[in-house]
Amino acid sequence: MFLSIIIVVLGLSLANASCPHIVSKKEWGGLTPVHVSYLPRPLDLVIIQHTVTPFCSSDGTCAEAARNIQTYQIDELNYWDLGMSFLIGGNGKIYEGAGWLHVGAHTYGYNSKSIGISFIGNYNNDDPTAAQLDAVKALLRCGVEEGHLTPDFKVVGHKQLIATQSPGRRLYQVIRTWPQWLEDVTPIKNKS
Description:
Radius of gyration: 17 Å
CATH topology: Lysozyme-like
Distance between the termini: 57 Å
Keywords: Disulfide bond, Immunity, Innate immunity, Signal
Oligomer: single chain
CATH superfamily: Peptidoglycan recognition protein-like
Largest sheet: 6 strands, mixed
Family: Belongs to the N-acetylmuramoyl-L-alanine amidase 2 family.
Pfam families: Amidase_2
Subunit structure: Monomer.
CATH class: Alpha Beta
Domain Peptidoglycan recognition protein family: 20-162
Number of strands: 6
Helix content: 25-40%
CATH architecture: 3-Layer(aba) Sandwich
């Protein structure tokens, strides 16, 4: 019995070993959400965006960017929380937004059926760093392993679903090469 418990605990810790560290809201100084609504799981859609804010490359500037975005979205846009599920800093760190479990406010009409991942910066001008791309790929693998994403999930650019330049030309060019890329969004596109 004791050996079985040790094996289960060891198995759980090994299962999470491949998941990257996500900087929690508490760690980056985020506010508690005003309200939460829960996502169904697993999801099969990931939307990649950019914040159109200055690029950040240090822990301090990336945490400050996350705080500024959250404050703006709560105070000015009346969102319940930071709208994106996750933010990716130029330092290669992943910042918790609405997370895996909560409905975000990142893409009108798709919030309750997708995960929104936003790169901090303007990727019409900035190139995504290798550290950022590695972090997102690790996050997506973890999402599948932990049952948040289906094994056959698809990735799209924000601009494929609504009228925007997001995720920026340079980032869009990169994500189009990913194996999960969905070129034709006609089957998933909202009819409005």
